[in-house]
């Protein structure tokens, strides 16, 4: 894939970028490595000042930055602006809490025969971040903000279709006051990742993206014995039980499926309704999905914009067509729109069987698969019948059912009577083939720290 801005609403190539040369890559790594030597010694107060200044710039530039995001990957202007403001919130959260989150942790000194014993968190060094296009600022910021506040420095290898977002993030961090080379955007193809990760000056890596990309980075890092955090795909269940507020569940289900034009790892993708309310849920859900307005993402009245890439639309189309040919029922949507750009309509599919690829594969677009469950046991069984385990949603007012969902759904996150959302205050990540490690909260800032044991004897 060329490194280029291609407008998903029209298919027009707006701007292309030359990939960095091997010499430019080596220079960027060298400068980052040298910068870490002094940056790690800056105080939390100084880093917090820079992080707050970066947040202020993001807020002041939210309108034009949102327009850039929409141009590059097609999300609506409303959601793009919300993403920019969320990035500002992320920087502010870690500016205000990093010092406390990384404070020395006292241990029982007497139990280990010491005068004093504790654990200290210290930065690892240069961290490579391999990031996707669907939340081109937020997914990079949820690494950058904690990593910088911990004293690490970052190299960003962003997706090839959002180069302007990559360059903007590195620029706004520098304009916020962080020293040059603390956070560098490298415009390189995916083929360059291995050499960068194997470089002795790079200490660790984080990746948000596809399962194949995660496997590749994990294998390289494992061979080099370097720590990684992986946030990969998701096929999140959205369970609705008879006691749920059905109207609220349906409204949230629509938002959960079409957020970011359906291109979110934590978007609900598999909707599991109890048999007692299945028909009513499907009728209401289909009605609301079919009523969504698909169109120009810069139009404030648009609900769903284009998919980000032509290949992405082709993959969604293939899974839906396969299911329909095998006997699944298309309740609404199901056919690409006859217009320029990479649009695909909100789609609802029922009568899916386990032998259909759509049963187990992640559909990265506004396509909802609906399943009928006879009881809570079957609902949990369907929810867990996937190799992924990122987020999950369950709607019920029955406290016993709530506890079963919390205990038995195989996922990194369970949201009861709500929609899965990432917050700086909560850990974010998955299990099974959705990856390992955690971003955000205390877990995220400690992910790329050396937890150093300190034992001090008596004088």
UniProtKB/TrEMBL annotation:
Keyword Oxidoreductase: yes
Record flagged with keyword Oxidoreductase: yes
Domain of life: Bacteria
One annotated GO molecular function: aldehyde dehydrogenase [NAD(P)+] activity
Keywords per UniProt: NADP, Oxidoreductase, Tricarboxylic acid cycle
UniProt xrefs under InterPro entries: Ald_DH/histidinol_DH, Ald_DH_C, Ald_DH_CS_CYS, Ald_DH_N, Aldehyde_DH_dom, ALDH_GabD1-like, GABD/Sad-like
Pfam families per UniProt: Aldedh (PF00171)
GO biological process: tricarboxylic acid cycle
Start and end residues of each Aldehyde dehydrogenase domain: 3-454
Extent of the signal sequence: none
PANTHER family hit by this protein: SUCCINATE SEMIALDEHYDE DEHYDROGENASE [NAD(P)+] SAD
Family per similarity comment: Belongs to the aldehyde dehydrogenase family.
Protein name: Succinate-semialdehyde dehydrogenase [NADP(+)] 1
Record gene name: gabD1
